[in-house]
Design a protein that fits this description.
The structure is a single chain. This protein has about 300 residues and is of the alpha/beta class. It has one domain: P-loop containing nucleotide triphosphate hydrolases (Rossmann fold, 3-Layer(aba) Sandwich), CATH 3.40.50. It contains eleven helices and ten strands. Helix 1 crosses helix 3. It is globular, with a radius of gyration of 19 Å. The two termini are about 35 Å apart.
């Protein structure tokens, strides 16, 4: 019986790897590390009083959080027979027009999507509340190739109760910094374009006011911990190369040089997260330079 079950899981993982065009090595990684996680999440749902369980997944850009989220949802649905969906924080980015308006009123750096303050947290609150109540809802989707939200006809549609909702994002679960941390520049972007600290203070304030309250929806947290921020550049370039090969409109796909500039927007909170999120996560997976998992740990919350 055990061998038959393992063979079924292996087959399902292989199907997912093939569908997502992932490296063959992902088969073994998923079987060793993520299958036990999936089993644990399923058991937690069985024992929990809540009908819908929310899982939060954090990982820096390019760490593999979207791939992991998709795999978990796929296995939970196909093998563990739990209805499951994935929601990305990225899909709640403000429209380009909204960000341009924000940039003109608050700070020019807010034109660029990414940091807290550039998401529609009111809409996200509505979506999470609807899902927690088992209501039908439309969930926005964002097209990074055109740097704007998709038309409503292309939004994700959910009809009724979902057993497990996976919410992933690069700063999802990140807590605000203190004033002393904000006083120091972390890169040239801040040094040259945020001289009065207005941008970083606004971002931090938005994180505290509009993001932290949303974390209360999450029942379990998973953290993909990168070795350091320096790995983000390599991983983010890989993402853009993949996007360029698949997107119909590549006008807003970034070059490697543009990626290097772009990730400076994320540096402050990514570094802060790497130092602080372990203690607040239920599962922590330590990644190496190639995003392979070195070790994992489970915290009792």
């Amino acid at each position: 019986m055990y061998k038959a079950k393992m063979q079924e899981i292996k087959s399902l993982i292989a199907q997912y790897v093939n569908k997502e065009a992932l490296p063959a090595a992902y088969n073994d990684l998923a079987l060793k590390w993520y299958t036990p996680l999936c089993k644990s999440l399923s058991l937690h749902h069985d024992k929990a009083k809540h009908k819908t369980m929310f899982i939060g997944i954090n990982g820096c850009q390019g760490s593999g959080k979207s791939t992991l989220s998709g795999l978990l949802s796929y296995l939970l649905t196909t093998y563990f027979k739990k209805s499951s969906i994935v929601i990305s924080l990225d899909d709640f980015y403000l429209t380009r027009a909204q960000r341009l308006n924000l940039a003109s009123k608050v700070h020019s750096l807010l034109e660029t999507r990414g940091v807290p303050g550039t998401h529609d947290t009111e809409l996200m609150q509505e979506v999470l509340e609807a899902l927690s109540l088992g209501q039908s809802i439309q969930i926005p989707t964002f097209n990074k190739a055109i740097d704007d939200r998709n038309k409503i006809d292309d939004w994700q549609v959910v009809n009724g109760l979902i057993d497990i909702v996976i919410v992933e994002g690069w700063c999802w679960g990140t807590m605000p910094q203190n004033d002393d941390d904000l006083a120091h520049d972390v890169n040239d972007l801040e040094k040259d374009q945020d001289t009065n600290r207005a941008w970083r203070n606004y971002v931090n304030q938005q994180l505290a006011i509009n993001y932290v309250p949303l974390y209360s929806f999450i029942h379990k947290w998973v953290f993909l911990r990168a070795p350091s921020f320096e790995h983000v550049y390599k991983w983010r370039c890989e993402q853009e190369h993949k996007l360029k090969s698949t997107a119909k409109d590549t006008s807003n796909v970034m070059s490697d040089e543009e990626v290097l500039s772009f990730i400076q927007y994320y540096q402050r909170l990514t570094m802060h997260t790497l130092c602080t999120l372990d203690a607040r996560s239920d599962w922590v997976f330590e990644l190496d330079n190639d995003r392979d998992i070195i070790t994992s740990s489970q915290n009792e919350q």
